[in-house]
Design a protein that fits this description.
By secondary structure, this protein is mainly α. The protein has helices at 19-23, 26-49.
């Protein structure tokens, strides 16, 4: 008979998630895109219209 103890069914330890995992999240990318567009529009306004 097989002895199935709790150690056999343990979940493997999760690998630490780094910066690339955080950047792959859609809400963060949308936020960064909005901030980037606002900065781009402000800089173009300063360069071209003032």
């Amino acid at each position: 008979m097989l002895d199935t103890t709790q150690s056999d069914t343990e979940a493997p330890p999760e690998e630490p998630r780094g910066c690339l995992y955080a950047l792959s999240q859609p809400p963060l990318m949308i936020f960064l895109a909005v901030i980037g567009c606002l900065l781009l529009m402000a800089s173009l306004h300063d360069l071209l219209l003032l």
